[in-house]
Design goal:
This protein is an alpha/beta fold. It is built from 9 helices and 8 strands. The chain is elongated.
Length: 224
């Protein structure tokens, strides 16, 4: 397990940040605007990692072929942009982990399928310290996760090989991305798991139930 670990990259929603509380508000706000009953918090929470299209399908039971689908999705995004950092915060243990990484001269960054228009204002509002050394959004690549391109770009920006990166995520697409890139992967089970989903099927190198369990795993790779 002897590696030179240069950086730790995180998925955003459900891994680094608990963004679900703000999505609960805006999805139910949109439902109320459409005179529809609200959804339970846990139902919305389970769908957050799959993006705005999945949330519209979940909330209204329609798909992209419906003429109201895209207007509803755009309205959801509009509501979210105005409410994307009201209740959102890092998961327990993340702030301390980032400081520990800094103390050990390990860079950190984000590889997300969340567009930059929402990711960058969110990160600016949170002002996490030290700031991420790399933030990769769909706007920056041709192919998004599960394609490995985001982590290839991150390795270029960070000046290291993908093998020197640990990638952490709460969804199979994250682990597929990391594995395809050649990174060490950690699957988190505290994120936004869909009903009946088994994280062991992701084939991550490691799994954690809490962000507090991540640093001990990283340490193992630092021991020579």
């Amino acid at each position: 397990m002897s590696h030179s670990i240069h950086a730790v990259m995180f998925d955003l929603d459900g891994t680094l940040l608990d963004t679900a509380p703000d999505f609960v508000v805006v999805v139910n706000q949109l439902l109320s605007e459409q005179q529809q009953p609200n959804l339970a918090d846990d139902v919305i929470r389970a769908g957050v990692s799959n993006g705005s299209k999945a949330l519209i399908k979940l909330a209204f039971g329609i798909d992209e072929t419906d003429s109201q689908f895209e207007p509803l999705r755009q309205r959801l995004l509009e509501l979210y942009l105005a409410h994307n950092c009201v209740f959102t915060k890092p998961f327990p243990g993340i702030t301390e982990l980032i400081q520990t990484l800094a103390d050990n001269n390990i860079a950190w960054g984000i590889a997300t399928n969340k567009p930059a228009a929402y990711t960058l204002p969110l990160m600016a509002d949170l002002n996490m310290q030290p700031p991420p050394a790399s933030v990769i959004c769909p706007d920056h690549v041709r192919n998004t996760k599960p394609d490995p391109e985001p982590l290839f770009l991150a390795s270029t920006q960070l000046g290291c090989t993908p093998q020197e990166i640990i990638y952490i995520g709460d969804h199979k697409r994250d682990i597929d991305c990391g594995r395809s890139a050649g990174c060490i992967t950690i699957g988190v089970t505290y994120g936004y798991l869909e009903k009946n989903e088994n994280p062991l099927n992701w084939n991550a190198d490691h799994y954690v139930d809490s962000a507090n369990e991540i640093w001990p795993i990283i340490q193992k790779y630092l021991q020579h």
